[in-house]
């Protein structure tokens, strides 16, 4: 009997983006070629405006690349999205204002034509710290709570691929730490391939198996750093020398990228 297919990895080949603009266009992502292993969690870190979201959107199939391609296993991102194998959460979560938190999360199941076991939505809402808010409408939630509802909405369909754009940007520090510990446990258990954008070096090292540090626009990879810490991360891992060394490597790569600047010369190619 053939083996069950595992979750797919992601392969980006020469993926690049240039937006139309005066003077030959604005190069936002320089040709990007990387593989993301199935089941791994990767953080994309880089200065504001460098092209992280654009890169993530291209991988999600929501932005057409100017060059190059993305393959998820042997499918295109659009094909994976069409069968609800991929979930994306944006910086500004688009929840339907007339639906409750539960209604928003349940809608993702309906759209994906999936069912969840009884209690799944409540368990997810508890996981993201929204216990007691299932019946609340988005207008009565804080920005951070809306972001967490959006994360629950992403997780409920059990996607193979999770693409998160600054998922904890508006979340308070204490909750952020809790989520940084709890969510990776969930997606590791499911074998989800996860890519997330963050501005926080600590969050990147705490959550990811690998950190890609990007340069100022146009984004190019300055460093590709494996995070060699135990999984799941032990309590207090942030206080260890190994953690501090990894965080320092990421910070140093960010500084190096900033000093070198974007490769504006590529814009002419
Ligand atoms: N649709 C678009 N048309 C033209 N320019 C765009 C478009 N989308 C993004 N840009 C430009 O591309 C650049 C990169 O934007 P992007 O949102 O990818 O950066 P980012 O690294 O995610 O930034 P931040 O960390 O601040 O969210 C910016 O200069 C932005 O103005």
| Ligands and ions found | adenosine-5'-triphosphate
Looking across the biggest beta sheet, what order are the strands in? 5-6-7-3-8-9
Beta-strand segment tally: 9
**Major β-sheet annotation:** 6 strands, mixed
Classify the helix fraction into a percent range: 25-40%
CATH class of the domain at 10-76 and 162-169 and 193-268: Alpha Beta
In percent, how much strand structure appears in the residues? 15-25%
Supply the CATH architecture of the domain at 10-76 and 162-169 and 193-268: 3-Layer(aba) Sandwich
Low-confidence stretches: 263-269
Backbone structural class:
alpha/beta
> Might you state the CATH topology name of the domain at 10-76 and 162-169 and 193-268?
Rossmann fold
Q: What is the H level of CATH, i.e. the homologous superfamily of the domain at 10-76 and 162-169 and 193-268?
A: P-loop containing nucleotide triphosphate hydrolases
Report how far apart the termini are. Answer: 50 Å
The radius of gyration is: 19 Å
Mean pLDDT: 89
Give the overall form: globular
Structure characterization notes:
There is one protein chain. This protein has 269 residues and is α/β, with parallel strands linked by helices. It has a domain at 10-76 and 162-169 and 193-268: Rossmann fold (3-Layer(aba) Sandwich), CATH 3.40.50.300. It is 34% helix and 22% strand. It has helices at residues 52-59, 77-82, 101-111, 120-127, 143-155, 173-190, 201-207, 241-260, and strands at 10-19, 26-36, 41-45, 67-72, 86-89, 161-165, 193-198, 210-214, 221-226. Strands 5-6-7-3-8-9 form a six-stranded mixed beta sheet, with helices on both faces. Strand 6, helix 6 (173-190) and strand 7 (193-198) form a beta-alpha-beta unit. Helix 3 (101-111) runs parallel beside helix 5, helix 4 (120-127) packs across helix 5 and helix 7 packs across helix 8. The N and C termini lie far apart (50 Å). Residues 263-269 have low confidence and may be disordered. It binds adenosine-5'-triphosphate. Adenosine-5'-triphosphate binds at residues 19, 26, 28, 46, 48-54, 217.
């Amino acid at each position: 009997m053939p083996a069950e297919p595992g979750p797919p990895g992601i392969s980006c080949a020469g993926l690049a983006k240039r937006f139309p603009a005066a003077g030959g266009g604005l190069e936002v992502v320089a040709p990007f070629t990387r593989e993301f292993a199935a089941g791994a969690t990767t953080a994309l870190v880089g200065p504001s405006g460098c092209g992280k979201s654009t890169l993530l959107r291209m991988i999600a199939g929501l932005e057409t690349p100017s060059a190059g391609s993305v393959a998820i296993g042997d499918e295109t991102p659009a094909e994976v999205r069409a069968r609800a194998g991929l979930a994306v959460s944006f910086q500004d979560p688009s929840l339907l204002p007339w639906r409750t938190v539960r209604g928003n999360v349940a809608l993702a199941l309906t759209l994906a034509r999936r069912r969840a076991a009884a209690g799944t939505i409540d368990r997810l809402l508890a996981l993201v710290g929204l216990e007691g808010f299932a019946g609340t409408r988005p207008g009565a939630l804080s920005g951070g709570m809306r972001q967490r509802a959006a994360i629950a909405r992403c997780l409920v369909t059990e996607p193979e691929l999770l693409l998160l754009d600054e998922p904890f940007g508006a979340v308070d520090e204490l909750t952020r730490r809790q989520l940084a510990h709890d969510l990776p446990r969930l997606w590791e258990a499911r074998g989800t391939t996860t890519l997330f954008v963050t501005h926080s070096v600590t969050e990147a090292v705490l959550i990811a198996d690998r950190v890609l540090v990007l340069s100022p626009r146009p984004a190019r990879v300055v460093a590709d750093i494996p995070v060699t810490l135990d999984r799941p991360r032990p309590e207090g891992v942030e206080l260890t020398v190994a953690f501090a060394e990894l965080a320092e490597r990421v910070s140093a790569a960010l500084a190096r990228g900033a000093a070198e600047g974007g490769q504006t010369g590529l814009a002419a190619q």
